[in-house]
Every structure is written in structure tokens, then in C-alpha cells.
């Protein structure tokens, strides 16, 4: 209020001193009074205004001296002229000192402002660290209003968080060192309109002014002299509006810089806290879904396990009965009956293999795999499988040739390795047309190797990557078999430290190679 009267006062004093100087005799040195407004102008902190006053004072000094001489009949006293010259020099001296004082005051003010801003910035940084220390949205909101009141030097800090809704936000209030108070409800209309403007127009910071009716109404509602509002906005999400209140003091210049830094970091902290909260909910949902899936998987596995286990007994009994009938235990059979019985036995054998495959797959999927590792004669085991599946390849008139080295001993579970050989050979028989050939070769190198080569249809290149996957449904083999045979071979090979791979045969067909670690390898010569 005082600053606005400095310039008019200086001009009025200058005019008064000039009039008094004109009205007094030459030898009465009234011009010295013109230094008064020049010295007073230093309080305006405006060097240009001070220079203007010095110029006006020099002009007034000369004009008053001339007027005095005219008044004395155009006679100017030498002493009076000297006084005028000295007075003019004093104007220049006082003006220079006033300008120097103004420059010093401005520098001191700037240094004080920098120190104040640095102090506030440090306070804001500490406050932001506290705000971002939590990942709980509720704790972050409380920290925002508490630290805003402390670090930004206000009497009251209020956060209108747009939860549960915009029209009825949650209100967090920190005042006079008390604990943060939380309330939910619709704010007064004049406050709600401010929140709506800040949120919809995405205003960063807005000072509530007392120059309009609505601004004065808002200040009266809060019962303060000064208020400033800032939107907590992160990307496209508006978390709320922070309002800072001072009961008696105004906000300093550059105050918005510290406030902007604080609300930006607070919005980031709220975004991170909300993200963690959402991740927690998602994790709980995923955990519940995983439990449900695991339970369903356990049920399905148990059903498959029980079904395949229980099927083996009646299948074995039926197979024994049909074998006895085929061997004449129940009398001679007509040739047509014998052919039907042989096909039935072959189908029954296929069902038994499927039941055993399902049983092994369910065990592998549940993690209940065999840890038994005994010496296994790979050649003898392969010979037994070839003999077991003879009805299948013989009925298709396939020329099956075997080269089985003796004493190729690998280390593993004999039943599982036998199942892998059965699945590989049965796969070859299935996909080899009648009248073609299959070669079964057992040999030892660094590893024990079983190689089954067939003259069948082969596997298209785009399907080879899925060949050993579970229940594959490829174009050329869709609907054929259970889709578990080759998958089980891979699981058995992997569990034994070996491998199985496919390669196309140069003249058409397929080559499957099963490798297993050797216990000891001795090839007969």
C-alpha cells in the first residue's frame, strides 16, 4: 500500500520545493530542498524514476534561478549563481547515491529471494521423499496434505481427492499441526465450481483472487486472506485438487515454482500407488485363478490317472482271453473268426498302449516322474518291442529290418524306455503305407542310440517344430492318434538326460533318433 504513494509524493514535493524556490529571494538557498524527493525516490526501487527526478530538479533549479533574477530586475547575484551550481551538483550526488542504494537493495532482495527459494526447494524435496515413500494410495494422500502444509509454509492444506466420485470427493485437511482429517461429502457450490474448472480445463495452478465476487466468496468460505489451487494431474488422470490457504499473508513471487514441483511429484506418487494397488488386486485375482486352475488340473489328472490305471486290468484280461481263444483253448475257430479275433487283439493292444501312455503323461505332468536308473540293454529292449508289434507291421505287409548291436547298455527306467521305443515304432507303423519298409537300428557312439527309419509319408516342414508337442493338431496329422505319443517320448528322453529328434529321409519318409546316456557300451564284432 505504501509503495503506490511514493512516486506521487516525490512529484508533489518536487513541485512544492520549486514553487517555494521561485517565491524566495536569490540568496535564500531553497533549491537544496529539491534533494528531498530525489532521496525519497530510492524507496521506489526504480532507477529510471530517480534519474527523471534528478533531471526535473536540475531544470527546476535553473528555472527558479532565472525567475529570481527576473524578479530582481534581471540582476543575478554571483553568490546565488554559485549556490545554484552547488545545488545542481548535490542533485547529481544524491541521485547517484539513491540509485546505488536501489541497486544494493535489489541485489539484497534477489539474494534473499534465492535463499528463500533454495530453502523452500530443499523443504519440497524432503517432503516429496516422504510422500513417495509409501505405495498405499490412502497414506500417500495423507502425506500430500501434511507435507504441503509444512514445506510450502501455509496455514491449511486441503486435498480434494476425486474418490469415490467427482461430485463427492474425499477431503483431506491438514491444519495447525493436527492429524490429517478425512471427510467425504459434497463441497460448497463455490468450491465445487473451482474443482470442476481445475479438473475439466486441466489448469495447473490458479490463485484465488479477491478482485471478483466469486473469488471473494471462496476466500470467505475458507476464512482466509490468500488461497492458491493446484491440480494433481499425471498423464490423462486427474487425482484431485490441492488448495493451500494463508490466513493473513499473501503468497510470494515465484511461489508457484515450488508448488508446481510439489504437485507434479505428488501426482506421480499417487499414480505409482494406484498402480501398485491395481497390481495387488490383479495378483490376488491371478493367484485365485491359478489355484482354481491347479485344482481343476489336479482333478483332470486324477481322472486320467484313474481311468488309464483301471483300464489296464480289463484290457489285459480281455487280451488274455482272446489269445487263448486264438490258440484253440475253446475249440477250433473258423478262418473268418480268427481274422476278426486277430484284428480285435491288435485294437486291444492299441488301447493298452494308449492307457499306458495316458498313465505316464499324467505322472509326468504332476511331477511324479520315475527316478529309477538301472542298466538297460537297449538292443534287447528294442528287439522285444519289434516282436510285440509284429502283428501290426505284419498285417500291413511292411518289411521291417532291424540291426541291433549287442550290449548297448544305457542307464534309466526300463519300463519308460520301453514305452518310448513302443511309441516311436508304433508311430512309424501308423504313418508307413503297406508294402513299404522300416529300419530299426541300435548302436553306441558317445551315447546309446535308437534310430527308426521309415519309408512313410514324412512330416511337412511347417509341422516339424510342433512334432514333439503335446496334443498337436497339424494339418497332415489332424485327428490321428492321441497326440501324446511323441510328446511322451520327448518327456522320457529329457528326464533321462537324452534327446529325441526328427530328420527327413533323403528318399522320402522319416528318421527318428532317440539318444540316451550310456551305462557302458560294448558292441559285438
Task: Summarize the entry for a quick read.
With 525 residues, the chain is α+β, with helices and mostly antiparallel strands. The protein has helices at residues 6-23, 35-40, 47-71, 78-131, 137-151, 189-200, 213-222, 255-326, 335-365, 378-388, 390-395, 414-430, 485-495, and strands spanning 156-164, 169-175, 181-184, 205-208, 226-234, 237-246, 374-377, 399-404, 408-412, 437-444, 448-454, 499-504, 510-516, 518-521.
Notes on the protein architecture:
- The protein is of the alpha+beta class.
- The protein is 55% helix and 17% strand.
- The protein has 13 helices and 14 strands.
- It has a six-stranded antiparallel β-sheet, with helices on both faces.
- Helix 8 runs antiparallel to helix 9 and helix 10 packs across helix 12.
- The longest helix has 72 residues.
- It is rod-shaped.
Secondary structure: elements and pairs:
Elements lengths: L5 H18 L11 H6 L6 H25 L6 H54 L5 H15 L4 E9 L4 E7 L5 E4 L4 H12 L4 E4 L4 H10 L3 E9 L2 E10 L8 H72 L8 H31 L8 E4 H11 L1 H6 L3 E6 L3 E5 L1 H17 L6 E8 L3 E7 L30 H11 L3 E6 L5 E7 L1 E4 L4
Helix pairs in contact: 1-3, 3-4, 4-5, 4-8, 5-8, 8-9, 9-12, 10-12, 12-13
